[in-house]
Amino acid sequence: MLTPIQQLPQLSYQALDDLPEPVFWFDDQGDFVDVNQHATLHWGYTKEELLELSIFDLNPTMTRDIWDEHWIKKMNDPSTFESKHQKKDGTIFPVDITDNFVTSEGKTYCCAIIRDITERKRADQIARLSDFTVQSAGDAIFWLGLDGSILNVNQEAVTRYGYAKEELIDQTIFMIAREMSAGAFAGIWDRLKNEKRLVFEGEHFTRSGKKISVEVNANYFEFEGQEYTTSIVRDITDRKRKESALRGALLEIRELKEKLEAENNYLNEEIELKNNIGEIITENASYKKVLSQVEQVADTTTTALITGESGTGKELLARAIHQLSQRADRPMIKINCAALPMHMIESELFGHERGAFAGAVHKKIGKFELADQSTLFLDEIGEIPYELQSKLLRVLQEGEFERLGGNDSVHVDTRLIISTNKDLVKEIEAGRFREDLYYRINVFPIETIPLRKRKEDIPLLTQFFCQSIGKRLGKHISDIPQKTIQRLLQYDFPGNVRELENLIERAVITSKGSRLNLVDFNPKQKQQKLKSFVSLEAYQKQYIAEVLQHTNWRVSGNNGASVILGIPPTTLFSKIKKLGIKRSNAVEFD
User: Fold this and answer.
1) Which of 111, 119, 378, 494 has a CA-to-CA distance to 35 between 20 and 30 Å?
2) Which CATH code for domain 274-299+311-442?
3) Pairing state of beta strands 150-153 and 23-27?
4) What are the DSSP E strand ranges found in 437-531?
């Protein structure tokens, strides 16, 4: 008896046998009644062996109950479904089965085309694995089109930015990269197209408006004639914060290093300076009261204003205040305002940034910053330019300033000791010193005493200078004649202690042996000579006042003082203000 396949025309049977897909014919009991050549090759059986088998031999999950239900269901609704088959060697593999039912001589048969889908299942598994990996990635991933449209995102992008996936897809990248322009995106795309991969940093925004720093790893590819980019976006906000903190720490270390170097340089300069007075020597009752004031103010943070003539030891008193204070473990910083050119005082006091002015090739730490947590001695404050006094006032009031050429405020805790040999009240009247600054620094005034008013200290100071200077010069002066002391007592020392020190140093150099010899020292001649001269400023003040009195205080015009003096009226007005010349004042010399 012929099988159903054998009953087919020979051409159709040959076509079925040559079909590249395995074909099985079986009856309602599941027994195979025919197979094509490809079925024998794929399952590893001969045709004869397969015809002795049934569906239950190839499908390890099939049971009689399942088969009966399956047969009835598929007869009514033929379709393609997945199952598993087993080869002769025991290998189990996935298959797609397409059932077709035919009836011949009153009996129904099933023609099943069975395909091995192992590769497809493996590809599907890899695809699912890839998708799972992408969705589980710790970085946000965006698939973008040429115009910046968001085509797809992973779960991390949804979680991080706070949008639903549907809200992100079909939007543009500009929804989260709010600070990026279309032109900037086009520029990135052009670079990406040439380089295929770009890594860059930017700023993104979440749905709540939170700004995060991101690192974008963008990759260019083409698919089915279209251009795309896959961008892996990593949140680097924490890294940026740490980098910022590290930069801040490094900046602080660098500034501390610069401050330490500046402090060391300052100390080296101080070591090279002469400081012959190692202690304060006095027998004068008035000067002892001055020292009592020093002790009273030393252990405070109050600004001390030391006034007095040049050479009276104002710096010595300032050092005593510092050494008796709680800041004595740090060096006292000093600056002589009279010894600096006007254009350098601001830089010396407050420092400057690199490029602040021509020649500023490095940042400079100013004296205020150098004296942080210590004491700053401003010697001859009356020489500070008027326009700079407001900045000094701000430091005193608020404890902060900006370096020259800088914008950032520098905060300091600096104790100030100030000295001057000028009458600051008269300087205020002359318009050369700010009144508000004067009242800010005149908290605890200390007035030094000139040497002519403490002559009982001259013998003690002379002996001290002979010892200290002699030790420095390698000489031993032990004999100071009484006549020498008497000669010194006859002189008023307008240069005060500094003049006495210089006089003794010259005498030590010229003295032979152990006896002090004052060569060419005549107190009367020196005092007469000193009374014959005045400062250039005082002389100028007197002369201009005399000319103004002559012109009845007429400044300009044909008979004005400016014509006599040969200077423009504006220049004369400026000098009158600067020198403090007033009509009610009479200027005379001794």
Assistant:
1) 119
2) 3.40.50.300
3) unpaired
4) 444-447
From CA 424, how far away is CA 428, in angstroms rounded? Answer: 6
Among 315-319, 470-474, 542-546, the minimum mean pLDDT is found in 542-546
Q: Across the chain, what does the average pLDDT equal?
A: 84
At the topology level, CATH places domain 137-235 in Beta-Lactamase (3.30.450)
Kindly report, residue by residue over 436-489, the tens digit of the pLDDT. 999 999 999 999 999 999 999 999 999 999 999 999 889 898 899 999 899 899
**How far from 336 is each of 345, 384, 420, CA to CA, in Å?**
9, 10, 10
Is residue 240 packed enough to be buried (19+ CB in 10 Å), middle (13-18) or exposed (0-12)? middle
pLDDT bracket for residue 263 (50, 70, 90) = low
> What pLDDT does 419 receive?
94
Q: How far apart are CA 94 and CA 489, in angstroms?
A: 124
Same fold for the domain at 274-299+311-442 and the one at 451-527? no
Q: Which CATH architecture describes the domain 451-527?
A: Orthogonal Bundle (1.10)
Q: Which of 542, 533, 535, 534 is nearest to 576 (CA)?
A: 542
Distance CA 500, CA 496 (A): 6
Compute the distance between CA of residue 307 and CA of residue 42 in angstroms, rounded to an integer.
114
- Residue 409 identity (one-letter amino acid): S
HSE-up of 123 (CA within 13 Å, CB side)?
A: 4
Comparing 394 with 274, which gets the higher pLDDT? 394
Cα 15 vs. chain centroid, distance in angstroms?
82
Amino acid occupying residue 45: Y
State which H helix or E strand residue 27 sits in. Answer: strand 23-27
411: three-class secondary structure by DSSP: strand
**What are the start-end ranges of the E strands in 272-384?**
304-307, 333-336, 375-379
Note the CATH number of domain 4-122. Answer: 3.30.450.20
Identify the CA nearest to 205 among candidates 166, 249, 171, 247. Answer: 171
Query: Which segment, 214-228, 239-253, 297-311, is predicted with the most confidence on average?
Result: 297-311
| For the chain, domain boundaries | 4-122, 137-235, 274-299+311-442, 451-527, 536-579
Give the Cα separation of 396 and 513 in Å (integer). Answer: 53
Q: What percent of the chain has pLDDT over 70?
A: 89
Alpha-helix residue ranges (DSSP H) falling in 137-236: 155-161, 165-168, 182-195
What are the tokens at 322?
A: 């510092």
Q: Which residues pair with 220 in a beta bridge?
A: 229
Burial of 312 (0-12, 13-18, 19+ CB in 10 A): buried
Average pLDDT over residues 414-431: 92
Tokens of 302: 């109050």
Rounded CA gap, 429 and 8, in Å? 132
The pTM for the full model equals 0.49
Measured between alpha carbons, how far is 67 from 124 in angstroms, rounded to an integer? 28
Query: Does residue 381 sit in helix, strand or coil?
Result: helix
